[in-house]
């Protein structure tokens, strides 16, 4: 059985770090699906290597899904999601502190993510924890 690392807690919930396994993968797909429904999904081009679930014995109310093998210096956040009933309580901010712990443990110095241009809540939230914009991802529709 995989050894569980508890990174932090919130009420009865614990932030638990997982290497990629079925449970983490299932929550990744479920939470990513919510992003898709909101029209905020990105390019799913990096492999899931591990992540954090915020969970109690019977419920998962948040997750962050990570790639830490692709870049030597950085961790890529593929997706972060907080259950709507638990938003604006600092869960996402603590999730980032947990990601920082993982990064330092892996001797990484950068955290990267990609946010849809219409995802205004996330773009607002990112300003509060010092993210800067490094790239614009562009696309062109082919005409018939
Ligand atoms: C974006 C998201 C992760 C924020 O989670 P959260 O736990 O509610 O965030 P926090 O409570 O830690 O918020 C931290 C700060 O970010 C900002 N923020 C968070 N949500 C915001 C919103 N909807 N509008 C404006 N600012 C927001 C605020 O400054 C907030 O601090 P405050 O509540 O003291 O004002 C959550 O809304 C979510 O899961 N959205 C859907 C998934 C998604 O878009 N993920 C990102 C792409 S991968």
Key structural traits:
144 residues, alpha+beta, Aminopeptidase, 6-stranded mixed β-sheet, binds coenzyme A
Descriptive overview:
This protein is of the alpha+beta class and 144 residues long. It has one domain (5-127): Gcn5-related N-acetyltransferase (GNAT) (Aminopeptidase). It contains three helices and six strands. A six-stranded mixed beta sheet has the order 1-2-3-4-5-6. A hairpin with a 4-residue loop joins β3 (50-55) and β4. The chain is globular and about 55 Å long.
Topology:
Layout: E1 5-10, E2 13-19, H1 22-37, E3 50-55, E4 60-67, E5 74-82, H2 91-105, E6 110-113, H3 120-127
Parallel strand pairs: 5-6
Antiparallel strand pairs: 1-2, 2-3, 3-4, 4-5
The chain binds coenzyme A.
Please work out how many helical segments DSSP would assign.
3
Number of strands: 6
> Mind describing the biggest β-sheet?
6 strands, mixed
Task: Give me the secondary-structure category.
Answer: alpha+beta
How would you sum up this structure in a few lines?
With 144 residues, the chain is α+β, with helices and mostly antiparallel strands.
């Amino acid at each position: 059985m995989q050894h569980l690392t508890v990174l932090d807690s919130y009420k009865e919930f614990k932030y638990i770090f997982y290497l990629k396994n079925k449970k983490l993968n299932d929550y990744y797909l479920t939470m990513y699906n919510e992003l898709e429904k909101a029209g905020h999904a990105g390019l799913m081009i990096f492999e899931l290597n591990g992540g954090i679930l915020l969970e109690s014995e019977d419920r998962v109310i948040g997750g962050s899904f990570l790639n830490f093998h692709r870049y030597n210096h950085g961790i890529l956040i593929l997706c972060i999601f907080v259950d709507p009933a638990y938003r604006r309580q600092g869960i996402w901010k603590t999730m980032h502190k947990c990601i920082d712990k993982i990064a330092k443990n892996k001797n990484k110095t950068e955290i990267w993510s990609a946010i849809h241009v219409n995802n205004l809540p996330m773009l607002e939230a990112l300003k509060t924890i010092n993210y800067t914009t490094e790239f614009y991802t562009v696309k062109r529709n082919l005409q018939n």
